[in-house]
Specification:
The structure is a homodimer. Chain A contains 12 helices and 26 strands. By secondary structure, chain A is of the alpha+beta class. Chain A folds into 2 domains: about 100 residues, SH3 type barrels (Roll), CATH 2.30.30; about 290 residues, Fumarylacetoacetate hydrolase, domain 2, CATH 3.90.850. In chain A, the strands form 7 sheets. In chain A, strands 6, 7, 8, 13, 14, 16, 17 and 22 form an 8-stranded mixed sheet that branches. A 5-stranded antiparallel sheet of chain A has the order 4-3-2-1-5. The mean pLDDT of chain A is about 95. The interface between A and B is large, with 64 and 64 residues. Bound molecules: calcium ion (CA) (2 copies), magnesium ion (2 copies) and nickel (II) ion. Chains A, B: Pfam families: FAA_hydrolase, FAA_hydrolase_N. Chains A, B: One of its GO terms (molecular function) is metal ion binding.
Chain lengths: ~425, ~425
């Protein structure tokens, strides 16, 4: 990988190898539109288009003015993988030290000043209009650990777990972008076996997940085969924090699954890392010894990504502790498998639909500091996790901030997500 | 109630007392837009607006040209209950024999020819853009009967059932309007205890439900109290068939709830009966002896509607049998209670979001012919339901058509929904 004419810190998530897409609002009164992250900058694609429409049009014939002045990435996603690939490659060239068109930006101070904005000066928006959000449960070590907690080690996993990617329909309306305040939910909780109380959740938790956005839709009554899912269906990835109120969830979830325990907010990181950008980081997931149904069989064994993931907890006092370090490779099911399963019966996926991986924890569990939820770290709230400054938590306290981070690759060529962050605010009275 | 200058059959669901709203496409090349049903006609509101914009604007100040030329009812719903009430009242006047403005339609043959179209000449569209769909489980007799089947009579209802309206997130992308073909889903089913098979569902079922569309949205982090939910939140109602593949559902649903067993299609009736139109048909629901949490307490005991509901099964040969007759009063939770519960933790509901009541069955169960699903009618597939012509079913056969109907009120002043219909087609190979 070549270097950029821009000064990019080698530790940046947004190297030339990445080029993630997002929706920005600039300080000046302007409607939300599309940009890409590069180092500490955003390259404003609406503005760049305005300067050189003919250059963009030459990159891919389907590009139009509306694509990058849209308030979501849906129109861009809908163009399909070849278009995403062409635009990313062209932007990589444009930002390379030996760019084939130096006159556009590298050697054009005026254009640089207009189109390159420090990230601190833009406001990030939710990147996609999300029609439906589905949350899977593919994090094997999480599913196993939680199963042991609830049903004992013999029955930790339900009989279906290794046969199909278990998932459930989540709530799209409460999907929020990193930085959005998270209000502790009120709900019915069972403090006394005699009956429930309506109160603020006392067991507010996080779930570290990888999110996957759909590019290519399928029509009602059709299914997507697993090979096509891998080649065409996926637009890109984000980090996802599936905030969970464990006490609300425990009381409500039989027999139809999680509801108010999960639907008060789900935070995603603002930059969509394109599917192509993660290709070099493929690896094998958690081994599944169960013979797979044909529709779930993949050609490549390297069906997940080795993204290094971290969870930081920052106390109201401002002290930060990394409470988890793991990898997105600890999944038993790949996103193409999830897509093949989701559409098996003919359910339509639409451009902009979001799939969550399920909570990701490593095999080391609580002892190894590899858990994607406080539920696991604290063994159901029984043990405290020690924080910097001799503070401790079982579940989240008002004023706590949780930040997910994720990246792959080596210094100078990192492909990362930036932050997926949310601060907890006191419950409504 | 006065009569109309239009010739309306007294048995019509679409009397002057109703005035339900829908989205139509006319035979002539035209984009979808808003109409109301009256007798066997549709009154085209886009066209009527074009003839007399000043009349409409006088009805309610928030009305604009876009409202009725929109391809969904969302913009109209968003205006709020007072606007819906004013427009419905004005249309009732316009269509009354003693209308205050006879020159607009009653005595204007040219305008009548343009604006009143036989229903057979229009194509009905999905009436709303549905952001999120939530399916509740408020049909007490259904929940109890299914619980007995799965867990025995002692544990038929889960401990939470009488404390909160149990619900789960459904799939919005597969919501279809009455008449849309229903393809039998393929899925994983457990024919052999040794492991699942991927095959067409053998236990395709229906669920008779009432659907409720949201008018007034609430912001993230806010909740809607039950009194406001009743006064302001609801736009109107439709019939809903929550098609269910029981064999897929049984294998997949632990621990996170229904997924592919439900997400392949959900059919709704095309005409949205406004909340005001159902007001005269309020009654008390299923008694709940459990003390309620404050946020679920309602002032009025008449919190549900007595809508007479029927399920017709038409065989491929064309013979029709009514397999169920019941009432929407058999709910233990009202829609305002569902809304109060759904938003308790701050989950935002948006204009156009849809809530399903859960399957509605009467206390008479299978013997009384009051079941909202074949699962109950056939006691889990153990007994056949006899059809016209000595045909019989446990679950649905390819080529079967299921039609839900619902109405209240007496002849000449009926408030009904029309049909919610779907025909089953052979599974994809
Ligand atoms: Ca989750
Ligand atoms: Ca249902
Ligand atoms: Mg969530
Ligand atoms: Mg359904
Ligand atoms: Ni006029």
């Amino acid at each position: 990988m070549t270097t950029s004419w821009l000064d990019i810190d080698p530790s940046s998530d947004f190297s030339l190898a990445n080029i993630p897409f997002g929706v920005i609002t600039r300080e000046i009164a302007q409607s939300p539109h599309v940009g890409v992250a590069i180092g500490t900058y955003v390259l404003d694609l609406q503005l760049l288009w305005g300067l050189h429409p003919e250059k963009f049009q030459a990159v891919h014939e389907a590009l139009t003015t509306e694509i990058f002045s849209s308030p979501t990435l849906n129109a861009f996603a809908e163009l399909g993988r070849p278009a995403h690939r062409a635009v990313r490659a062209w932007l990589q060239d444009l930002l390379s030290i030996d760019t084939s068109c130096p006159e556009l930006l590298r050697d054009n101070e005026e254009a640089r000043k207009l189109a390159l904005i420090p990230q601190r000066n833009v406001r990030m928006q939710l990147p996609m209009a999300i029609g439906d959000y589905t949350d899977f449960y593919a994090g094997y070590h999480h599913a196993h650990a939680v199963g042991v907690m609830f049903r004992g080690v013999q029955n930790a996993l339900q009989p279906n777990y290794t046969h199909l990617p278990v998932g459930y329909h989540g709530r799209a309306s409460s999907m929020v972008v990193s930085g959005t305040p998270i209000q502790r939910p009120v709900g019915q909780i069972l403090l006394d076996p005699a009956g429930p109380t309506t109160a603020a959740s006392r067991r507010l938790d996080i779930e570290l997940e990888l999110g996957c956005f759909i590019a290519k839709p399928n029509a009602l009554g059709t299914s997507v085969n697993v090979a096509d899912a891998e080649k065409e269906a996926i637009f890109g990835y984000v980090l996802l924090n599936d905030w969970s109120a464990r006490d609300i969830q425990t009381w409500e979830y039989v027999p139809l699954g999680p509801f108010n325990g999960k639907n008060f907010a789900t935070t995603i990181s603002p930059w969509v890392v394109l599917a192509d950008a993660l290709e070099p980081f493929r690896t094998t997931g958690v081994e599944n010894k169960t013979p797979l149904q044909d529709y779930l069989k993949e050609e490549r064994r390297e069906n997940v990504f080795d993204i290094h993931l971290e969870v930081d907890l920052t106390t109201p006092e401002g002290d930060t502790t990394t409470i988890s370090r793991t990898s997105s490779k600890h999944l038993m099911w790949s996103f193409p498998q999830m897509i093949a399963h989701h559409t098996l019966g003919g359910c339509p996926l639409r451009t902009g639909d979001l799939l969550g991986s399920g909570t990701i924890s490593g095999p080391g569990g609580a002892k190894g500091g590899e858990c994607g939820s406080l539920l696991e770290i604290t063994e159901g709230g029984k043990k405290e996790v020690l924080l910097y400054g001799m503070d401790a938590r079982t579940f989240l306290k008002d004023g706590d901030t949780v930040t997910l981070r994720g990246s792959c690759g080596s210094a100078g060529a990192k492909v990362g997500f930036g932050e997926c962050r949310g601060r907890v605010y006191t419950a409504r009275r």
